[in-house]
Amino acid sequence: MLSSHEACRLLGELPAARESDRIALRARLLAAAQRYGFPAPERERMALACYELATNIVKHAEGRGLVQIWYQPGPTLDLFAVDRGRGIADLAQALQDGFSTSETFGKGLGSLERLSDYCEIYSVPRRGAGPRRGWHGTAVLARFSRAAEALPAGVGLFSRSLHDDRANGDRLFLEQGSHHTRWLHVDGLGSGPRAQASSAPLAQALAAQTDPVWVLEACDRLLGAGGHRAVAAAGLVRHAGRGLELAGVGDVHAHLIDDGAQQPEKRQLGFAPGILGAVHGRASTHRLSLAAGALVVSASDGIRRRWSLADFPRLPRHHPQLIAYLLGYQLGRLADDQSLAVIAATPGKAGTAAGS
Length: 356
What we know:
Blueprint lengths: L1 E2 H4 L1 E7 L3 H17 L4 H22 L3 E8 L3 E8 L7 H4 L13 H8 L2 E7 L12 E9 L9 E6 L9 E7 L3 E9 L4 H7 L3 H6 L3 H15 L3 E9 L4 E7 L3 E6 L6 E5 L14 E6 L5 E5 L20 H12 L6 E7 L12
Antiparallel strand pairs: 1-8, 2-3, 3-4, 4-6, 5-6, 7-16, 8-9, 9-10, 10-11, 11-14, 12-13, 12-15, 15-16
């Protein structure tokens, strides 16, 4: 079973505009890679990929962007770059060696696919003017892993503490079998060490129970016994039958996304008010069928719940981890711990082989 406190950590984040920041980011990446046992040739590939990501932001987005270093299971190191530039009108053409719009050799994007174990690029060209023109820019995930399998297939995790402190009141527990994915998404009340301590023992609730309602009932007992308080959602996706069972109590939220329909749909799944370990009614439950390409997104209240698929066209077609990083970055509230999980109805790309 994975716990986001150990399995999903932001190791570094720096803007790309200044050369000093790019040098510091490279040094932080190489130190982390050495600490997690990546061999020297792979560390060199990471450094080159980091340089390409930062350079592309400077060339094509006037430096308006940043690069993050993430730790994921494996061990796996992810480079996630995001900018608010003009976007890429023809991504397939931009990936061809020799193509450039900035009078350079044009090897940056194409080289990322060769340098990394897995690479995926999402880009939306700028659309018109006005407050509702939606997100535009480019987001890139470049993954380096020492394991044949890193994160479970079809899963994306994002977890970031308030002010990037060591303690995080949000926690995700996740377990995947051959035909299902189960997870528990907990938001301990408040922030800091006490909020983090509230969720620490709750892995046993997910391990002992299958039905999401029973998982939350077990959480309620554990929290009450320890004098802690939290809100939470528990979910089960059955991949073979493409079914979702989801239960929740309190101010967490979830969305069901179906991008395979003629008109992409995002359905919000709300939960009954209350606090586990204190006063609450029966957990709200959702039992739904899932389309083949559907995604389930669960999030703490540190992630804004009001957003539109129209602001991120075609995003659900991408790897759940890229989706998690981009939504977490764009929708995160600066005054709270932030976390979200993206679960695919039918696991596809495992994020371990190069491609886009």
